[in-house]
Design goal:
Radius of gyration: 21 Å
Structural class: mainly beta
Mean pLDDT: 86
CATH class: Mainly Beta
Number of helices: 1
Order of helices and strands: EEEEHEE
Largest sheet: 5 strands, mixed, barrel
Shape: globular
Number of domains: 1
Low-confidence stretches: 106-111
Helix content: under 10%
Length: 129
């Protein structure tokens, strides 16, 4: 058994581009800017959405929108103009969700940990409810 599932949250770097295949199947492509842990940089991840998911992305998401993408990682082999073999990774979106409230494009809320205090451990082992 194998498993290929990925979940990403990030902002679109530009408006999604929607096209149609020769058989009139909609396909939308976009790039998500995804922060790495601990402020160590950003990864730019290519995403492809098909059919109704492509329609949804093209209709509701624009540059800067926060999106949550659930899908699978796909490796694609291709040949560049100099006949060199290349491999690229992309996420094929199965579902795309809104990552923030409509019209709200803000960063995460910073919390100062010094405002918290530890609770005393004097409940005698009894739960208060």
């Amino acid at each position: 058994m194998s498993l290929n599932h990925i979940i990403l949250q990030g902002r679109l770097t530009k408006d999604p581009e929607k096209r149609y295949t020769k058989t009139e199947k909609p396909v939308a492509t976009f790039t998500l800017a995804v922060d790495r842990d601990f402020g160590e940089g950003v990864d730019f991840i290519n995403v492809t959405a098909w059919d109704k998911t492509a329609d949804f992305v093209e209709k509701y998401f624009t540059k800067g929108s926060m999106a949550i993408v659930s899908g699978r990682l796909q490796m694609r082999e291709w040949t560049d103009k100099n006949e060199n073999k290349r491999i690229s990774a992309e996420v094929v979106a199965e579902r795309v969700y809104f990552g923030e409230s409509k019209g709200k494009k803000t960063s995460a809320i910073a919390v100062d940990a010094s405002t918290f205090s530890e609770l005393p451990d004097d409940d005698g082992g009894e739960l208060p409810f």
